[in-house]
Amino acid sequence: MHPQALLDLTSTLLREVLKFEFAADNVVSTFFRLNRNLGSRERHTLAETTYHVLRQRLLLQNLAQSGKGPMERRLAILGWQGQPSFLKAAITADEAQWLEHSQAIDVATLPEKLRHNMPDWLANPLREQLGEEEFWALVNSLSGTAPLDLRVNTFKAKREAVLEALKAANIEAIPTNYSPTGIRIEGKPALQKLDVFTSGQVEVQDEGSQLLALLTGAKRGEMVVDFCAGAGGKTLALGAMMRNTGRLYAFDTSGHRLDAIKPRLARSGLSNVYATQIAHERDERVKRLSGKIDRVLVDAPCSGTGTLRRNPDIKWRQSPKAIAELNEMQAAILKSAARMVKPGGRLVYATCSLLKSENEAIAEQFSQAHPDFVQVNAAEKLEQAGVSQAESLVTEAGHLRLWPHRHATDGFFAVAWEKKA
Asked: pTM higher than 0.70, yes or no?
């Protein structure tokens, strides 16, 4: 494709994404569907430039003020992640001069907001929580991309065998630091074509997400509920832990999300999963399981701020009002899910948020209102599940707390309770 045409396409994609009407990954995939003639290198340039602009939006918009032409074009030039020679061939002499001048600016001399690229509602609580030095370490990690993690389906394969198969396919892979079932891969190879993927020996799942499933301690023959199952990553992990025995209910209010489980379920070889759409957290199907379930995992709807490396648009699409609404929903869902837990059973509340208001605050509120649920130390339960260095993942309060800059996972929080027998 001609360099000028590629730059124009990048500007067009940015214009759509920066409306913030839909999630960026949806906008990008729709754009690619409409432009099927694009090669893999062109897609890579388009996607990476878009995500780079989303990560560094405040800084790049500030630098763009001194340029000329449509704002999206200026942002595409400043955030370009394709071949430099392509960009050089696509821009005018004036634009080249302006770009050189912009790149010469020492970012360290600019106001803090342009360096951390976060709205105040997100930056302020994180700074307060982490302290100055760690806050900037987090900022630094969020401006990079997330690694690609796989979970070995232990119902079908062993991690060593999968590592060997990946090595044979010339894919660089290592065991994850903490999860006993995780593998981390370099780059972004075409996994869908590999036998280990098509035969269901592996699933794409962040290491942090794997740890949430392990915290439930699900065992053979149990009754288990994944209460906000989404596309089923944790459901599949739970099913493998249960060795395809017992009954595993995957509940979600979105039929569309549950549909995404079906092809994954077919690959996994699991037949103990019952994917069920519910109307709300107080659905009749939920009530029927009252006091009958051994393990309930509540991976609650949340701001998603723990996934900013993958979804940088979240920080521009969320708001304090939206988070306050989520807090109400989180508390209601947790309260409802708790009713299903039988005496001696375990309840796990989790989010992929970095914010205390969605995590510790909800857990504390629940503990105070439910004296029949006793919080257990997450480190002890993770160790029992074969997790390495479990102590380093858990706070003094006994909660699982994962940070991108500390643990190289997405940001996750989880707390586990056991119901008094």
From this structure: yes
